[in-house]
Amino acid sequence: MFGDRAAGNDSPVSTAKALYKPLSIASSVLGGLLAGKIFTELYQRANPSGNEPPEPSDLSSSARDIFIAAAVQGLIVGVVRAALARGQAKGFHALTNQDPEV
User: Fold this and answer.
1) What single DSSP character describes residue 49?
2) Sign of dihedral through CA atoms 37, 82, 72, 48?
3) How far apart are CA 84 and CA 102, in angstroms?
4) Which of 78, 100, 101 is nearest to 90 (CA)?
5) How far apart are CA 80 and CA 72, in angstroms?
6) Given its phi and psi angles, is residue 98 left (phi above 0), alpha (psi -120 to 50 degrees) or beta?
7) pTM, full prediction
């Protein structure tokens, strides 16, 4: 980032690339929060008793229930974060005609 400015390269693309990483981190955090909300909603709809998802340290829940909930939660988080990252990269490319350097 600073090397580009020292070389006199203050193009809009270099500025956009400098902003890409902080924006992608913020989007990733928001995506994780969104994925958590989606998982909680889906779990409550799939669970007839309407309880919250089990915590791994809850010894009254079966290991099977905990592992299934963790696997589904991981799947949802992964898909949401990947979709956001892909959308950001495509949007960056559409705006700058450059690939983002991550």
Assistant:
1) T
2) positive
3) 14
4) 100
5) 12
6) beta
7) 0.72
Q: What is the pLDDT of residues 56-74, one digit of tens each?
A: 999 998 999 899 999 999 9
Task: Give the single-character DSSP code of 51.
Answer: P
The number of helices, as runs of H, and strands, as runs of E, in the chain is 3, 0
User: Is 101 part of any domain?
Assistant: no
Which two tokens mark 7?
A: 């070389």
Asked if residue 102 belongs to a domain, the reply is no
Residue 95, token pair as written in the block: 């705006």
User: Distance (Å, rounded) from C-alpha 84 to C-alpha 89?
Assistant: 9
- The CA-atom distances, in angstroms, between 58 and each of 23, 38, 55 are 36, 22, 5
Q: Which structure tokens are listed for 2?
A: 């600073």
Token code pair at residue 62: 């079966």
- Give me the domain span that covers residue 22: 2-96
pLDDT tens digits, one per residue of 16-28: 778 888 888 888 8
CB 27 within 8 A of CB 88: yes
